[in-house]
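Second attempt. The first submission of Saccharopine dehydrogenase-like oxidoreductase had a stray character pasted in from the spreadsheet, which I only caught after the job came back as garbage. Lesson logged: always re-copy from the clean sequence file. Corrected sequence (450 aa) follows.
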Amino acid sequence: MDAQAQNSKPYDIAILGASGFTGKYVVREALKFLNTPSTPLKTIALAGRNPDKITESLKWASQSTTPPPISIVKADVSDPSSLRDLCSKSKLVLNCVGPFRLYGEPVVSACVETGCDYLDICGEPEFMEKMEAFYHEKAMENGSLVISACGFDSIPAEMGYMFNIKQWGSLAAPNKIDAYLNLESEKSIVGNFGTFESAVLGVANSGKLQELRKSRPSRARLVIPGPRPSKGATIEHQNHIKLYGVKLPSADSTVVRRTLVTLTENPEGLPGVDESEENAEKRKKFWAAMKPAHFGVKIASKSPLGLIRFIAAGLFIGLFGNFSFGRWLLLKFPSVFTLGWFRKEGPTEEEVNSASFRMWFVGHGYSDVSVASAATKTDTEIITRVMGPEIGYVTTPIVLLQCALVLLHHRKNLPKGGVYPPGIVFGATDLQERLQQNGISFDLVSKSAC
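This time the job returned cleanly.
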């Protein structure tokens, strides 16, 4: 779609699923930037199946019985014509309707068909890679930029990885970066039920992801200096950050790898549809400094006992997620099978406000790339940290809205269209600075020889 047609659309963003658990928090975050000085966000549409529930969501988000005059649009993922109508009137759709493997594809299809840009808060690798396989070429042709994982999954991981890489310098070579996610709260930590449902369905459909990957053409292989690191212990103690960690099967490592593979295939990054020479030089300089490394994510706690709830939830999902009655049990009684970590009604406002996260990035590599091939062990350790508020209802809306504002403000400097992971699109923009201005910090903790 050409720029003139895109600019003539009445809605800058449409929030689909505006009355859902996460959707209403996204609405609240969006209202902070509506018609503020220098914002590109002038018009919003709130969309979903039930206009009355959306009206209540708007009242809650605006903390007023007389909310601002914002368009409310009836749109349903089971009604393709309603989605096409919404997308034809919107520059950008923010999709908060999950699980995405069940409800996401009709929205992507409508966006691609109408040349509308698309962001979501998905953390489901199969959905993301399926959308890339099915819609990338048409999205490029129609000028629709489709970017999943624009919430806590997986912007903190993507931007945190890049922030760690920036600390290495031109001669150094990182070999691996492990992220340790530590969730904290003065009250109970309660997760988003949609996240739990996605995890259960992910286990049930794990074979489909492998089939999809085998059916697709081979992508570029990452060239990482030094030997492949060992897997290590199941429960690992990371001395320098004083945390115990166990592997977290999140989308983060998959999303970061997709960004690194795309960068390997496009060493200067992805050119903007109508970018300036100044932005092109900035983009090339940024991506020239990025380096591939082995990347993994672990859930972390100050003691091994703190990992019991996560390990128990993982065991139950693994045991029961592969047959229909087991899945019914898991989704019917999430609090029982996760020891209270997930519950259908979600967290209270007090639990949301008391929670926070710290994500430590522990990088190991070589002070000089020339010694990497002959070295038997790494000689440099760099630790960085990303911190922010509660992950599902506070950090996710912050991240999603900042991605939306970057896209609206810098659209000509971003790719014309295509289906991409967020890092390769937003890495060279001012997204990190925007996140820092909105409560998510990036810090260098230490840099030392080892």
